[in-house]
Amino acid sequence: EEVAKLLELKAKLNEDESPQAGSQKFTLKTPKGTRDFSPEQMAVRSSVLNKIISVFKKHGAETIDTPIFELKEVLTGKYGEDSKLIYDLKDQGGEILSLRYDLTVPFARYLAMNKITNIKRYHIAKVYRRDNPSIARGRYREFYQCDFDIAGAYDAMIPDAECVKIVYEILEILGMDQFVIKLNHRLLLDGLFEACGVPKDKFRSICSAVDKLDKSPWEEVKREMVEEKGLSESVADQIGEYVQLNGKEELVEKLLKDERLTKSKSAVEGLEAMKLILHYCDIYGTSDKVSFDLSLARGLDYYTGIIYEAVLVGGDASGDPESSVGSIAGGGRYDNLVGMFDSKHKQVPCVGVSIGVERIFAVLEAKYAATNTKIRTTDIQVYVATAQKNLVEERMKLCRQLWDEGFKVEHSYKKNPKLLAQLQHCEEYSIPLAVILGESEIQKGVVKLREVTSRAEVEVSRTQLPDEIRKRLQNYCLNGSA
Amino acid sequence: EEVAKLLELKAKLNEDESPQAGSQKFTLKTPKGTRDFSPEQMAVRSSVLNKIISVFKKHGAETIDTPIFELKEVLTGKYGEDSKLIYDLKDQGGEILSLRYDLTVPFARYLAMNKITNIKRYHIAKVYRRDNPSIARGRYREFYQCDFDIAGAYDAMIPDAECVKIVYEILEILGMDQFVIKLNHRLLLDGLFEACGVPKDKFRSICSAVDKLDKSPWEEVKREMVEEKGLSESVADQIGEYVQLNGKEELVEKLLKDERLTKSKSAVEGLEAMKLILHYCDIYGTSDKVSFDLSLARGLDYYTGIIYEAVLVGGDASGDPESSVGSIAGGGRYDNLVGMFDSKHKQVPCVGVSIGVERIFAVLEAKYAATNTKIRTTDIQVYVATAQKNLVEERMKLCRQLWDEGFKVEHSYKKNPKLLAQLQHCEEYSIPLAVILGESEIQKGVVKLREVTSRAEVEVSRTQLPDEIRKRLQNYCLNGSA
Question: Which of B23, B95, B396 is opposite residue A340, by nearest beta carbon?
Answer without folding.
Answer: B23
